[in-house]
Amino acid sequence: MSNIPAELKYIASHEWLRLEDDGTITVGITDHAQDLLGDVVFVELPDVGDIIAVDDEISVVESVKAASDVYAPISGEVVEINEALEDDPEIINSDPYGEGWFFRMKPDNIADYEALMTADEYENDL
């Protein structure tokens, strides 16, 4: 079974979210997603300042197997991107919940975050 940290929130399209101390939310793809993709060779990230709505296509991950869209898990504004992924996208494979994060956002409504799947719910959805 894939690694599914209990402290994170999840959505069915295999993105994870972590609430940071400053109220921003960090977003990435799950260990399960990176495993399905295989070796990641490129990632297209949103721009800082982008206003995103839930279910918007906000990133693209390309691997040796396929290209996959990443969807906005909640609405808000992108406040930071992980620029390290531009030169070293394989970080997503080696550390999807740590250094392999995609972007940070300021949520429109924190209740949207709270309503997302827990680790147990996500695992049961796999």
From TrEMBL:
Keyword Flavoprotein: no
Cofactor remark from the record: Binds 1 lipoyl cofactor covalently.
Cofactor(s) it depends on: (R)-lipoate
InterPro entries: 2-oxoA_DH_lipoyl-BS, Biotin_lipoyl, GCV_H, GCV_H/Fam206, GCV_H_sub, Single_hybrid_motif
Keywords recorded for this protein, A-Z: Lipoyl
Residues annotated with N6-lipoyllysine modification: K65
Source species, domain of life: Bacteria
Every Lipoyl-binding domain range: 24-106
Family: Belongs to the GcvH family.
HAMAP family assigned: GcvH
Oligomeric form and interacting partners: The glycine cleavage system is composed of four proteins: P, T, L and H.
Function: The glycine cleavage system catalyzes the degradation of glycine. The H protein shuttles the methylamine group of glycine from the P protein to the T protein.
Protein name in the entry: Glycine cleavage system H protein
Organism: Psychrobacter glaciei
